[in-house]
């Protein structure tokens, strides 16, 4: 009998992560780069802003003209997208948000704090507290030319895309999209639309894992296949999956039963087992392996809650790491449980919880790792270390961010 490893979840993840080969990179258009992971940093090609610019629609003036009662003549305007006209001493200049403020001016007053005439303005009392530099965004205050804006490993979210576009990177170097195969094993499994007998089951793990891995542009689930409990058939299907994918995720067949063929199928494919059985509940029989080429193969237990927890807690960070993400295992936010009870376990304990609209976190009553009805009512799970009690704070893993 194989003894369970005493590795913590993080130790098991780190050990397997250290054996995984990151995918290669490719160059793509920024227009197609949303959600992809940078493999090279982005640098500022010029200062941001590129010049002193106005933060408001208004008038550029000199400090000496503040507090002046008589009208201030306006010599011209700085229209967006046009170079600045010549500056005239003793005059204000109309300026629009984002327009360049020439060096001769000290500040910008908002137009609603002036009384405007076609050729001149009067400063209203609201401008009395204005200071030098008021409403001017200084050249380079966001970043100076040549500085690093985004590090390799950053996911190109909307904010990162904004900076990348601003600094002229119309093409970006990103990690190639990870190709994943999901294999669900078990003779009992049938399609979701099947008429099932009491000894049969509709496959829910395939759709669950597919959902947990969906919405990520750096990852593509190329197929979710069912495989029957047959040693040779499973080994062959796994060989093909390893061949045409970067990672293979299996569910079921990883425990002690006579029909649990996953460990042997991984062995037949020269997979090296890094961990098998961890001191966790649910999901204890989880198996993490790696091929000689550095592709992960993760065998998740078949019970629906075990498969989902294992995917969220183990598979997602490992795939993030393989895809080149910098923060591939960010610490989970911590939450306090409303009513934790007094029970303890000598295991790392993942407990289904729901969050109410006040932010309160409560345990979802559950019959165990087969109870997918309780999982349906949960927002994620907390994680508490062996023999711990109390409300926390415990790390909280939300099903989907
Ligand atoms: N003698 C022992 N028996 C078991 C142990 C043990 O330590 N000693 N561990 C138990 C634990 S804990 C778990 S978890 C399960 C995991 O076993 P397997 O990974 O081998 O999973 P299966 O036996 O194939 O399936 C378990 C359960 O889940 C249902 N299942 C499987 N696949 C799906 C799917 N795609 N969709 C929905 N439901 C699925 C399956 O029908 C079973 O009911 O082992 C315990 N046994
Ligand atoms: O560890 Mo199993 O996942 O409890 O049923």
From TrEMBL:
Secretion signal span: none
Enzyme Commission number, as recorded: 2.10.1.1
InterPro entries named among the record's database cross-references: MoaB/Mog-like_dom_sf, MoaB/Mog_dom, MoeA-like, MoeA_C_domain_IV_sf, MoeA_linker/N, MoeA_linker/N_sf
GO biological process, one term: Mo-molybdopterin cofactor biosynthetic process
Pathway field: Cofactor biosynthesis; molybdopterin biosynthesis
Keywords, in A-Z order: Magnesium, Metal-binding, Molybdenum, Molybdenum cofactor biosynthesis, Transferase
Region (Disordered): 380-401
Cellular component GO terms held in the UniProt record: cytosol
Gene Ontology MF, one: metal ion binding
Catalytic activity: adenylyl-molybdopterin + molybdate = Mo-molybdopterin + AMP + H(+)
Biological role stated in the UniProt entry: Catalyzes the insertion of molybdate into adenylated molybdopterin with the concomitant release of AMP.
PANTHER family reported for this sequence: GEPHYRIN, MOLYBDOPTERIN BIOSYNTHESIS PROTEIN
Protein name: Molybdopterin molybdenumtransferase
This protein's encoding gene: moeA
């Amino acid at each position: 009998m194989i003894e369970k490893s005493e590795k913590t979840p993080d130790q098991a993840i780190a050990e397997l992560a250290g054996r995984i080969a990151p995918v290669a990179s490719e160059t793509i258009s920024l227009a197609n780069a949303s959600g992809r992971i940078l493999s090279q940093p982005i640098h500022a090609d010029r200062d941001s802003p590129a010049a002193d610019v106005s933060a408001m629609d208004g008038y550029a003036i000199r400090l000496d003209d503040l507090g002046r009662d008589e009208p201030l003549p306006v010599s011209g305007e700085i229209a967006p997208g046009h170079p600045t006209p010549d500056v005239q001493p003793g005059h204000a200049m109309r300026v629009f948000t984002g327009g360049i403020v020439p060096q001769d001016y000290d500040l910008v007053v908002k137009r609603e704090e002036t009384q405007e005439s076609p050729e001149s303005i009067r400063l209203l009392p609201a401008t009395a507290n204005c200071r030098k530099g008021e409403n001017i965004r200084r050249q380079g205050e966001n970043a100076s030319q040549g500085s690093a804006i985004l590090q390799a490993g950053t996911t190109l979210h909307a904010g990162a895309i904004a900076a990348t576009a601003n600094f002229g990177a119309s093409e970006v170097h990103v990690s190639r999209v990870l190709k994943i195969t999901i294999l669900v094993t078990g003779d009992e499994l049938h399609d979701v639309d099947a008429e099932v007998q009491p000894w049969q089951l509709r496959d829910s793990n395939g759709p669950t894992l597919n959902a947990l891995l969906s919405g990520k542009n750096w990852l593509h689930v190329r197929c979710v296949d069912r495989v029957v409990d047959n040693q040779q058939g499973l080994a062959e299907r796994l060989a093909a999956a390893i061949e045409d994918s970067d990672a293979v995720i299996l569910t079921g067949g990883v425990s002690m039963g006579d029909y649990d063929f996953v460990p042997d199928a991984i062995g037949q494919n020269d997979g090296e087992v890094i961990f098998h059985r961890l001191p966790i509940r649910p999901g204890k029989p989880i198996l993490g392996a790696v091929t000689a080429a550095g592709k992960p193969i993760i065998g998740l237990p078949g019970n629906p809650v075990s498969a989902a927890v294992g995917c969220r807690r183990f598979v997602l960070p490992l795939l993030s790491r393989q895809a080149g993400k910098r923060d591939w295992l960010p610490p989970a936010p911590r939450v306090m449980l409303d009513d934790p009870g007094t029970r303890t376990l000598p295991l790392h304990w993942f407990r289904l919880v729901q969050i109410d609209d006040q932010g309160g976190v409560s345990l979802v009553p559950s019959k165990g790792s087969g109870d997918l009805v309780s999982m349906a009512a949960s927002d994620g799970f907390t994680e508490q270390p062996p023999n711990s009690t109390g409300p926390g704070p415990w790390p909280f893993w939300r099903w989907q961010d």
